[in-house]
Amino acid sequence: MAERSVVETRDLTKTYGDGAEVVALAGVNLAIRRGEFVAIVGPSGSGKSTLLNMLGALDRPTRGEVIIDGSPLTKVKDLDRFRSQMVGFVFQTHNLIPTLNARENVEVPMYEGTLSAGKRRERASGLLHMVGLGDRQEALPNQLSGGQRQRVAIARALANNPAIVLADEPTGNLDSKTTGEILELLNALNREQGTTLIVVTHNAQVARAARRVIALRDGQVLRDLPVTSAFESDLIDFKNSSLGQAILHGNGLPGDLAACAPALRQLLERM
Ligand SMILES: Nc1ncnc2c1ncn2[C@@H]1O[C@H](COP(=O)(O)OP(=O)(O)O)[C@@H](O)[C@H]1O
Ligand SMILES: [Mg+2]
User: Fold this and answer.
1) Taking residues 58-81, what's their average pLDDT?
2) Percentage of the chain modeled with pLDDT above 90
3) pTM for this structure?
4) Which domains are present in the chain?
């Protein structure tokens, strides 16, 4: 039997404003299984953040439905509680509380739960060890690097052992080396803990780390493919572009590009 989806959307639609309406999402249908690592890509304004906000119950759809772990969000009585138990968020800016140290920041989402102070502390400490910050637990956010702060934010997202982790451009403010480290961490969480990860990104490095890539355009799902097919599909689009054709046929290329054209041609010829 097919495993039940942990995240499902049906005809998910969001419009903003009245009168001159902006259609941010236009009838999105998705099903994401437990343990998947999904990248959501697309140009700026294509509806990525809107989709993530709907999945995390940060905002309400205009039409359609979000179903998390079998519960339609419209039927959930206590959305705050639902959010804190079921969903972990990681944003581009880490949103850590500047006056709390790393461990205290990770403890914040646990205040809604039933753990004793001692257990909260223990769990936060364990999570910080897991993200590689076991020795920086007492540090304030401004004593940590950007990558370290994002690790704290990831540990905080995991505080209540949520069914899904939603991340909106989690590496948007990081250099490519630090991005690589954060990706390794996300990958390990997904592989070793089975965390369901949904990551919005316009960074190809991030999208490649996922196993499935959902491309949005104008609020609709343009493509929904396993990562290898998604990149093949990008390459086919490139092959069909005027630059791709110029490379394939070796005409009209400026010097630098002409020099690497043979390698590129080989790649494109395989598509
Ligand atoms: N709060 C809002 N009010 C009005 N329009 C919005 C709001 N949030 C997003 N939009 C519009 O909805 C569309 C999708 O935005 P968004 O989901 O932020 O896209 P992305 O994250 O892919 O850049 C854009 O046209 C954007 O301008
Ligand atoms: Mg966005």
Assistant:
1) 92
2) 59
3) 0.85
4) 5-240 (3.40.50.300), 241-271 (no CATH)
24 lines ligand 1 (CB under 6 A): yes
CA dist 13 and 125 (Å) reads 40
Instruction: Supply 187's token pair.
Output: 């990958």
Low-confidence winner among 52-66, 165-179, 234-248 (lowest mean pLDDT): 234-248
22 Cβ closer than 6 Å to some ligand 1 atom: yes
Q: Is 45 in the pocket of ligand 1 (CB under 6 A)?
A: yes
- Closest residue by CA, ligand 1 atom 1: 16
In this predicted structure, the answer to whether residue 1 has a pLDDT above a threshold of 60 is no
**Does 59 have pLDDT greater than 60?**
yes
Alpha-carbon distance of 57 to 68, in angstroms, equals 10
- The DSSP string of 198-218 is EEE-S-HHHHHHSSEEEEEET
Only one residue has tokens 């070793």, namely 192
Alpha carbon of 46 to ligand 1 centroid (Å) = 8
